[in-house]
Amino acid sequence: MRYVWIVFSLLVLAGCASTPVYNPMQASTHPVLLLNENSLKEVKEGMTPEEVHKIMGQELVIGYTYQSTDYKPLTILNPYKVQEIKGSGHMIEYYVSSIRKSDGVVSDDELMPLVYKDGKLIGRGWPMVKSLPGAQPVS
Question: To which H or E segment does residue 39 belong?
Fold first, then answer.
């Protein structure tokens, strides 16, 4: 009888223990959702915009919404924005590369600029954009 009470007590105590629900955003030390990461790694200098578009695709799925009885993808265009610098031969395509804050706004720190000169990719990143005379802020 004593053995039954011990087993019963252990079962009751085990039933009271709970495991918290895993939340990856809370568990992460850097809660940033990376997008286009693998595709951006495939993009190389010397490519044309058309070659880059084949790799990057025309749309980027950034989430899903529930409509009636099914989930529908939330998409944005790829590239997100395009800027031409008149008279210089430069063009900049801005691709969403991360979501740092889920606020419905795409900020500059969530974009990766790709810089072209005369139809060929010459580099990427904000330092390159800032070095171009005539480049305007994205926002």
Answer: helix 37-42
CA gap 126, 92 in Å, rounded: 11
SS3 label, residue 114: strand
The domains of the chain, with CATH numbers, are 31-131 (3.30.1450)
Strand order in the sheet with 81-85: 81-85, 90-96, 111-117, 120-124
d(CA 75, CA 70): 16
Task: Please compute Rg for the chain using Cα positions.
Answer: 24
pLDDT per residue as tens digits for the range 22-48: 444 444 455 666 777 888 899 999 999
pTM: 0.69
